[in-house]
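ping. complex inputs:
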Amino acid sequence: MQILAQLLVSGIAVGMIYGVIAFGYQLTFATSKTLNFGQGEALMLGSLVGLTVVSITGYWIMLPIVLAFGLLQGSVVERLGVRQAIKTKSESGWIMATIALGIIFKNMAENIWGRDALKFPSPLPEAPIGFMGVNVLPMEIAIVVGALALMLAVEFFNRRSIYGKAVVATANDRDAAGLMGINTSLVITFSYALSSMTAAFAGVLVAPVTLTGANMGGALGLKAFAVAIIGGLSSGMGVVVGGLILGITETLTGYYVSTGYKDVPGLVLLLLVLSLKPSGLFGVATIKKV
Amino acid sequence: MLKHTCAALLASTILAGSAFADTVKIGLSGPFSGGSASMGVSMRDGAKLAVAEINKAGGIMGKQIQLVERDDEARNELGVQIAQELINKEQVAATLGYINTGVALASQRFYQEAEIPVINNVATGTLIARQFLPPDNKANYVFRTSANDAIQSAMIVDEAITRRGFKAPAILADSTNYGQLGRADLVKALEAKGVKTVAEEKFNIGDTDMTAQLLRAKQANADVILTYGIGPELAQIANGMAKLGWKLPMIGSWTLSMATFIDNAGANGDGAEMPETFIQIPNTPKRKAFIEAYQAAYKVDRIPSPVSAAQGYDSVYLLKAAMEQAKSTDGRKVRAALEDLQTKVDGVVTVYDHPFSATDHEAISANIPVFGIVKGGRVVAAHEEDIQGDKAVRVKPRH
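pong. complex structure:
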């Protein structure tokens, strides 16, 4: 029982890491039906910029700087990689462009910070907290709380603010929204900025546990993509649940089956979802009219 | 006068570039970026230090050494390209290199075919120096100055079971060739002592959570963790144990001395033990001079990977001795000279006294490495008595 609880706690912590990254995919998909395949690199850049800034300013001043950096980085990705593809209604241009930008960001980071894994200072004590025989790191609790708080804040912003109305309108029908006087390309740019901001925040949030480094984006970005597919790209709630499902199945399979097969059930689940409910567990199926 | 001639020679070499015949071109291939960069860079910097010393003292047979460095990024296909470039375009007399066993195995056959010696300075895969053994091949052109995995795994098991008396080892190895071949070597060495593992767990490069692996080892009542992996994931194992409040001694391959393990595990990594051919301790004049020269040249206190640096440094002197004995830089003659080296080479790791023969291309024998232990962010000797007195320099027994 105690072991199961420990596995669940670790699975939830890992799952929230995946979930908060996947949340960024969902943000841009909602407005433009495009994704930033460099999401993992946005996370990596945020965490490395944070690492550099934290040594100068301390932890709390670093956070707004990293958030601002994320906003800027996301706008750059949209301007360079996505805007042209949307304008020409290209079906795949943005895929190659965001992947290419991701590679460029990674190479830049390798030149600036090197390619070694680096330790990110933890703002909380590093000693584990024991609770009925289950140990958890304070930072793991912070990841869960921080990720949930960030996602709630973004959701709240999207639902309650005038910008949110514009997002919903753009998501429903971009052309109609444009005719109603909504600057849809600005909405899309802003959704990319917001998406990279969540990734950058996720980067500094998870780095004390996962270590940071130019290569951290690849594996985490891919896992998060699987989460976004499982949970459904159109649902913020879906990616959280998808992340938890993947994180928990990984740790449970690792313990009860074999650590060599840890990643398999998650991928089987991905295939099942794709074949049975392609829009994701929480996704809304849409009919595309041509 | 001599000094002026040397300076003029050096200047003309630089001006004339590679076309000038008065240089000995030596290739160097290793990852200077990527997860194993600390090893590649230290190996390169160690070799450069030796080249600078030799060039300052007049070079090899009056010729200056020109090192042709290439970054293989630990990628097999890039290693192959570099091997072909160094052989065909640069026409090197020999190559030093390889941190990664995969890159070595993919690339070294080009040197074998071209009959140019290649000295593996860091890669530990047991197969490397045996891939082209005679009599199946006319001659083997692949040499090595690092302790191979068979030696390391036997040492790890000996330390854990015999010296420290552990009875229930759990193996944690990564899913790469390095980790899985190492795991197989460890199991074999354990069987030779009649000990069975209580758990054998796998993890992937980039894994951030080791809870499942560690809990399985814990449930199996393991009393020691044997590791085969690289720095960042090894650090996650140490940090994972701290999280579970369950700290077992870690004993594993020499990668536990990587800076990425020591720095990322912090206090959790203290006490980890690994076999080392060289520990950054100035206990002989040669080692003292080497450490000081490295620190001065590269402005560091802690050498990122002392083992790689020392092995890289020594390999240049081995090559110099062989070329001078052969009175030639011809690959076949240098290979023959390496296999029958008459002069003793006083290196940082050991004194190389007939280090190679036609059938044995391993400069490091099982008696040379000692156990290092992580203490306060540095690697020190695990057992002081191992490096005291006449044990400071351990030499390979003559054939």
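Residues 306-326 of chain B form the longest helix (21 residues).
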